[in-house]
Design goal:
- With 906 residues, the protein is α+β, with helices and mostly antiparallel strands.
- It contains 32 helices and 26 strands.
- Helix 22 links the parallel strand 24 and strand 25.
- The protein is elongated.
- The N terminus is likely disordered.
């Protein structure tokens, strides 16, 4: 770069202000995130919450009509609608707070990542300013490793840039100064233009000055970011399943409610002397009976709805968010966790996810075919020759600070080669650079002429450019020997290529460099270097686990097909003759229907373009698959947003992370494996809770349906069932939410999007448990010997006595006993629900809170029987009464063990 031009660059302070007023700043508009209130209103769209809101509305209306004496015979206590309202508020607030908190944590990470400073020419000097303060007309000094802060054009110097985050092309692009009188009439998004540079690109090598022409949202980077702010209305698999469950429950509740209302009216008509007598009894009596029937219908609906389920999902998701963050998985959207557990297919980037994302020299082979994996293992004088040939023929530099060795500058290959010999520093060797030819993709070599202790030309490049010109090689003592292993070296290169290892040759020519040309004559081979992006060892294990989980993994890479195949084989992605590897060109020649036919067998997409990713996501979703996509670049963002779960890499662009559901902070496929495991753990925890709660609800509906027809008034009140579904189930949600992530979950097949959340085994558990609770409960309420234990004054009575459990009635203790039996049956059934194994304490050590929480539930329930009073319609029980209640309640465990044994044999 011409240093004499430096002071001609840039703007004055007045020009900066003028440009700011005309074109705006370089700040990108923030993604319009939902406010707390917006998220709260969105959560009211939950299917379960909707049903509860209907029940609340009916209950509230009846309460108001009764309280205002419009309908004086209506008896609805104020705390019934209040209880339903609290159930709704708690469920929505917990879910909203959890998601809002994680979103704020994510935004803080984004703000930290966006704190970039740039070197700007202002008022004739170089200043460092924040990226947001750049304006049109600013001149920015660009050096190796810098991220380009805005769109513009090169006015001095030359650089190579990596534009892969924008166009997916890993090939470095050369950028040179714009000619005088240049007229830019091309496309704004022309990445091939040799003069234009774009925000988000990274300088790989060289130094240059760019003049900013476009800032902020108008830049290519900003336009892509803005497009991603559109909403995606595709529902998560869990939401689909819960919607179906809610539909089923609402139908069950509404039909049950209507049926019980009709049945109650019919019972009143029959006991009132038949239709003729009943309808002549007066409008007031008929209206009172109708309202009684409506109130009972509302009770049935409230009992049918698992009020605790939305709250449980919010709690279990929030609890696991914290665990996942410790495992380098940041969940931005709650539904992203459970959806990860339902994945059918995962499109994964190769670089940095399956591989380490860092080029390394993994082998060195000299002319005598001696192979080593570390530079320190190179012997004798050859070690010095190797060090000189690399240290003095590179654009990278070794930096040593505080005892740490770091390679800076240059592209990834240069860094890898210099890093290999960074610790080889020849003592007492004096070498001075004379001239050089930098590496370019056309010549495929770099060369440097040196003088001093070494008077020669150092050559590094593609082996086909070097091997054929070598007549000699250096032995360990640094002596020249005749090179006769040409074919052996070629065979070795082919072997390394088959292992996805790229090869560079190193040689020395005794002659001087020509005018932009390599020296003639015979060269002396130093050796060949094998370079590759190593597959992460943990990725191989993680991919095997994900495969075992029934998730198809497709590696997407910009590499050549043969390189991609070699890496895929090492990662165990290619294991069968039926596995398909396609290039982007081959993919584009295929119709959507053709791709759908081969999609189940596709394992690798090579030379992939960003458009390929979005197309594959769309096609897979059309096949009703749950799709995951990983990415880190701006160009990946549309596919990340379109996928059911978008996994952005922590080291990726801010735009990619904004488009994602989950951020993988350590850029490791192993963390994706963990995200899938956590998703399945959450799904299984939700299923366990559904068994737990639906057993309660079905039993409650059955007892509330049958008893009024037999003259038993409200065996369970609305407040009691809300107490069960809200207070008890909130604690139960904490118990099930702490279930450990078991490796066996990764052996289960992915759940289909349309698959019911309640399986046949779950239904068998729900029906068995609820029927047993209903039968025993009905037996307690109607069998006189049992009634006598709880009700005084029933001596000699051997027949069924219709009971009224209202406060002050002699049957109050019986109603209390039934309520306690109901609660403790649910507590003991929690052990049945948490495992499908006969051993009820299986993996209980992984969920230490389970026993504690159930203990708290038991203590709270015992306390409420003495303290609940008229609100919970309770009365204290004595020791014998408690003993009978607990013995009856615990019987649900052996009953379910018998069911498990029967189901296992089927």
């Amino acid at each position: 770069m011409d240093k004499s031009r430096e002071k001609k660059f840039g703007l004055t302070s007045d020009q900066v202000q003028k440009s700011l007023n005309e074109h705006g700043s370089n700040r990108l508009s923030e993604v319009q995130g939902e406010t707390f209130f917006d998220k709260l209103m969105g959560n009211f769209g939950d299917p379960m919450i909707k049903i509860l809101c209907v029940a609340l509305g009916v209950n509230l209306l009846i309460f108001i009509l009764g309280a205002t004496n419009i309908l004086p015979n209506v008896d609805v206590e104020w705390y019934e609608p209040v209880g339903i309202a609290i159930a709704i508020a708690l469920a929505t607030f917990v879910s909203t707070f959890s998601e809002f908190r994680n979103e704020n944590a994510f935004q803080k990470l984004q703000e930290e990542a966006s704190k970039i400073t740039c070197k700007i020419y202002r008022d004739g000097v170089i200043k460092e300013i924040p990226i947001d303060d750049i304006v049109v007309g600013d001149c920015v000094l660009l050096q190796s490793g810098d991220k380009i802060p805005a769109d513009g054009q090169i006015v001095d110097g030359d650089i190579k840039v990596d534009q892969s985050v924008l166009n997916g092309e890993s090939k470095e692009a050369s950028k040179v100064p714009v000619p005088e009188n240049y007229s830019d009439e091309g496309e704004a998004m022309d990445f091939l233009n040799p003069y234009k540079v774009f925000r988000g690109s990274v300088v790989c090598s060289g130094n240059a000055v760019m003049e900013v022409t476009v800032v902020g949202d108008k830049s290519v980077y900003g336009q892509i970011a803005k497009e991603l702010q559109q909403d995606d209305d595709r529902e998560s698999p869990l939401k689909v399943k819960l919607s179906n469950l809610a539909d089923g429950i609402s139908k069950f509740g509404y039909i049950g409610g209507i049926a019980i209302a009709v049945a109650l009216l019919f019972q009143r008509i029959m006991t009132g002397g038949g239709f003729g007598v009943y309808f002549s009894s007066g409008f007031a009596n008929i209206l009172a009976d109708v309202l009684d029937a409506v109130i009972l219908a509302v009770i049935i609906i409230v009992m049918a709805v698992p009020e605790g389920l939305p709250l449980m999902i919010a709690l279990v998701s929030a609890m696991n968010m914290g665990k996942m963050l410790k495992d380098n998985v940041l969940v931005r959207k709650i539904n992203g966790i459970e959806t990860a557990g339902s994945l059918n297919i995962l499109f994964s980037d190769k670089t940095g996810t399956i591989t380490k994302g860092k080029l390394e020299v993994v082998t060195f082979v000299d002319g005598n075919m001696t192979e080593v994996s570390k530079a320190s293992e190179v012997k004798g004088k050859l070690s010095e020759i190797l060090a000189v040939s690399v240290h003095h023929n590179t654009t990278s530099i070794v930096s040593r600070e505080d005892g740490q060795v770091k390679v800076v500058g240059g592209n990834a290959t240069e860094k890898a080669v210099l890093g290999f010999v960074a610790d080889l520093v020849p003592d007492g060797v004096s070498v001075e650079k004379v001239s050089s030819i930098p590496f370019n993709s056309t010549n495929k070599y770099s060369a440097t002429q040196v003088k001093g202790d070494y008077n020669c030309t150092l050559v590094k490049g593609a082996p086909e450019k070097i091997i054929s010109r070598c007549k000699y090689y250096f032995d360990e003592e640094g002596n020249k020997q005749e090179f006769t292993n040409g074919q052996a070296i070629e065979d070795k290169i082919n072997e390394l290529a088959g292992r996805a290892i790229r090869v560079l040759g190193l040689a020395i020519a005794d002659e001087a460099l020509g005018e932009d040309s390599l020296p003639e004559g015979n060269w002396t081979l130093i050796g060949i270097l094998g370079i590759r992006d190593e597959v992460r060892p943990e990725s191989v294990t993680a991919i095997a686990e994900v495969h075992q989980a029934g998730v198809q993994v497709v590696m997407i890479t910009g590499d050549r097909k043969d390189t991609a195949v070699a890496i895929a084989k090492e990662a165990n992605l290619l294991t069968s003759d039926t596995d398909v590897v396609l290039t982007s060109d081959e993919l584009q020649k295929m119709s959507d229907d053709e791709i759908k036919k081969v999609l189940p067998n596709i394992r690798v997409i090579a030379r992939a373009l960003p458009t390929d990713k979005s197309r594959l996501v769309r096609i897979a979703q059309e096949m009703e698959l749950v799709v995951g996509m990983t990415g880190d670049g701006v160009n990946d963002s549309p596919a990340l947003k379109k996928a059911d779960v978008g996994f952005a890499m922590g080291g990726g662009t801010e735009v990619a992370k904004e488009a994602s559901d989950i951020v993988i902070l350590d850029d490791n496929f192993n963390s994706i494996d963990k995200a899938i495991l956590y998703g399945r753990t959450i799904f299984n925890s939700i299923r366990k809770f559904i068994v737990f709660q639906l057993t309660i609800n079905v039993a409650a509906v059955l007892i509330s349906f049958v008893c009024p027809l037999l003259g038993i008034n409200e065996p369970l009140t609305v407040i009691q069932i809300l107490w069960v579904n809200l207070v008890m189930d909130t604690l139960a949600a904490l118990a099930f939410g702490g279930e450990p992530a078991l490796k066996r979950f990764m052996k289960e097949k992915p759940k289909k999007r349309s698959e019911s959340i309640v399986s046949k085994k779950m239904w068998s558990s729900i029906i068995t448990g609820s029927l047993w609770m209903f039968i025993l409960g009905f037996f307690m309420l109607t069998f006189s010997p049992l009634q006598k234990i709880f009700v005084e004054g029933l001596e000699g009575v051997n027949t069924f006595n219709p009971a009224d459990f209202s406060s002050g009635d002699k049957y109050l203790e019986l109603g209390t006993a039934y309520f306690a039996f109901f609660i403790f049956s649910a507590v003991f059934n929690a052990f049945n629900a948490r495992t499908d194994k006969a051993n009820l304490f299986e993996n209980i050590g992984g969920n230490k809170g389970f026993l504690k929480v159930l203990g708290i539930i038991a203590v709270v329930q015992i306390a409420m029987t003495y303290l609940g009073g008229a609100v919970l319609r309770c009365h204290g029980l004595d020791f014998v009464e408690w003993l009978v209640v607990l013995v009856m309640a615990v019987s649900i465990i052996p009953v379910d063990l018998i069911r498990k044994a029967v189901m296992k044999n089927k």
